[in-house]
Amino acid sequence: MSSLLEVRDLEVKFGLRSGDITAIDGVSFELDPGERMGLVGESGAGKSVTGFAIINLISKPGYISRGSIHFEGKEISAYPPDKMRTIRGNRISMIFQDPMMTLNPVYTIGFQMIETLKAHRDISKSQARAIALEKLKLVQMPSPEKRLAQYPHELSGGMRQRIIIAISLLADPAIIIADEPTTALDVTIQAEIMDLLQELCENEKMGLMLITHDLGVVSQVTEKIAVMYAGKIIEYGPTETVVHHPVHPYTIGLIGSIPGSIEPGKDLRQIPGMMPTLTNIPPGCAFNPRCELAADICTRQTPVLEEKQNGIMAACHMK
Amino acid sequence: MKTKLQQFKESYFLYSFRRDMVAMASFVVLVIFLGIAFAAPWISPMNPYDSANIDIMNSEIPPMWMDGGSKEFPLGTDNQGRDMLSTMFYGLRTSIIIGLGAVAIQAAIGIVLGLMAGYLGGKTDAILMRLADIQFSFPYLMVAIFMSAIFQVVFGAGSFEQLAIPLLTIIIGLSNWPMFARTIRASVMGEKNKEYVEAARVIGLPQRIIMFRHILPNALTSVMVISTIQVANAVMSEAALSFLGLGMPVTKPSLGSLIRAGQEYFFSGSWWITVLPGLWLVLFVLVINLLGDWLRDVLNPKLYKG
Amino acid sequence: MTTNHTPLLRVQDVVKHFDISGGFLDQLRFKGGIHLEKTTVKAVNNVSLFVNKGETLSVVGESGCGKSTLARLILGLYRPNSGKIFYDGQRIDTLTHEQWLPYRRKMQMIFQDPYASLNPRKTVRQTLEEPLRFHNPKMTAQEARDKVDFVMEQVGVDPAWIARHPHEFSGGQRQRISIARGLILDPDFIVADEPVSALDVSIQAQILNLLMDLREKHDLTYLFITHDLSVVHHISSRVAVLYLGTLCELASANDLFNEPRHPYTRALLSAIPKVGEKKAKHIKLKGEVPTPVKLPSGCVFHNRCVYARERCKKEFPRLIELSNSTFVSCHGVEEGWPMD
User: Fold this and answer.
1) Whether C120 contacts chain B with CB within 8 A
2) pLDDT at residue B304 above 50?
3) pTM for this one?
4) At C220, which helix (H) or strand (E)?
5) Fewer CB within 10 Å, N side or C side of chain A?
């Protein structure tokens, strides 16, 4: 027991004019110190909302309607905003897909890093500068001194993402939540950034929650994987096992539909149809209309996430 | 398959309209204004443009709730003995005709030139936009003075009275087209690099068709927003010109010329001749601007998703 | 570059530079006296390649390598600064708008962004009928309707939805409609510019299967532009690798993936994350990607290449043909430097 982060039965709703819709429906998982976990799913599966929910950054009209988020032994899901700020960006950092979302284009990198540090800690400017430099070195930024004086637009996409990682490391967080950190980057740069994140987690004993649609990236970087579909985790287990012996038909289809998993020129394994929108999730198992195994029970009863084989948890009646 | 009416009933447009009290109230007032302007000849107690109806003995009668007021003239009369209520109805009608006509001219010129500047780019763009800059740096009052002077020389001062409405429409229309041209150009520049335009080019469609049938319909939302604001501006311009004596003649008063005519009597106690048309004008311009603001918020694609 | 038979498409030493220097005032420079200086993006530099009938040639490279520009050059949306483009033996890069029209029927394009590639104000019917009517003015309404229905069925969109607008469809369905528009004129050659990169994995598989299926049914030739190497391996017969607007390597897909020659191709291949494979050590590149505004001298890759020598900095490597009709542009490969 007593993981670093423990999310239990989390539910997030969005209040719309047509009524509340459930974006996250009973999501549970835990993360240990230094552990790297992948949260995988297609767009609209609820993976980003899960990330935002952990640091209580869900914007109106969304709200956490149920469940608990335990972090370092404290229940943080109901923290008021000012108390949350001692955690967010401090103990838990977040990295986004677009570095320019976090970086302010009118200030230098150095200014932004030093300001961030001073906002969280009572230190002098020169101390802050030293820490900033140290973190830039940690992310293997070439000529870090020079970078402090540069503006975000003077750097390439890969460099900016390194800066973002450096900023997220400033407060020595226990967990980094990375939401599609390399989706906007080229493959060669992506490989470098992923190497970096993995090394950091290993060396600094940081937990990593990698939110992405790219199973390839997840399977190389993480130890544990949670596959989301229509707001629920439908498969959860060690990355190695899930990738090689997936249980849930959706995961099987997802892995089969990646080109490269199959002989060139042959038809890819395709999942028919598309993920339901949150406003009309089918009753029973949300995946049943697309599932080749679906039986009567799948349309009536929602499957629960339970232990299946080789330490994999899956939510499926048929397995 | 839904009908257009059903689609409209379920649309975000109607939804946000019904939630916005200001927009709804403005819309109701605007409809009343338009109704009055349209029906002015039938609902006005008298025709103020017909000198046969005017009796100078009735001049400067105060509104009916004041001492000396009469039920015959609910809002009083002006210095020539015309019923204020009727004059305001007719004046509104004139103002709206000129406003809409001027915006139609502005839009027609502005859309074509803006579309060409935005889509063709390069030298065409540079020339058209510099032209717009030059046009903008002339105050429309100056243009109006020149034009009416030229007009009076060419056609003679007598015919001015008959042709005042089309002339004012053209003057105001010509002096404000750069607003439209710039707005359209900006949205065309955003649209023209989208892939659907490239797709049309790959099909081999001629530029004219791409510009007018593919790009223009997608750039029209911005036109709707600025059209409303521009109608208000045109009405104001007309009022200003008339106030300066360059617009509608006193025999066929618009709201501006009414305000001007009453101004001389303001300090002699007959305040209603100026103040009532003034409030009338302010209210009219205000509701248009409020609606325009609301429209801009609703149609802003950054705020409106799906 | 020579071939025995006439390829369907041949691109010969094509160069495209974009002038981004703006107006007169933006060009003014005061360094070393007052003078005007143009800023040009060197998007495509001396690229030569050919596509044979019935094959799928993929053009891969990272962002800013000029692959999309190349696609648009081939379809005449841009004119090359120099070089020649031949379609079926006829030179097409110098044609006027009217002369292009017959080729418009034969060469079509599929776009990346399913949200931007369909005109939001037009129904599916309008989008699909417009090219038909334009190229066949004599076609009756019924004939057009039948053709549209037929093509919609082929791409897997229910013809009953013909009166809908694009916003009523999901991304995958829009991409199908976009493909239908590309097919409606019965083209022989289709340029697909990142047709699946904006889609989710499961939808991506559906679209890739559809594209491969249509290739069989309609005898299509594809020029496939993408940055996703696993997609490339799956669908292409040959692959061209671009870096900073320059062709590095052109080889059959099997040869390229089994035995990449150019150091850049090697680095690129090693960086693909593969599902279920423990991470192999990927090849790290030195330095930063230069901008296409200021290209490096000599081989454009030399400042990032771990094998670069003096010659690479000075001399642009020419494209050489190896025994298995692989084309490589690298001094190291040409001279047989040890590269491991």
Assistant:
1) yes
2) no
3) 0.84
4) none
5) N
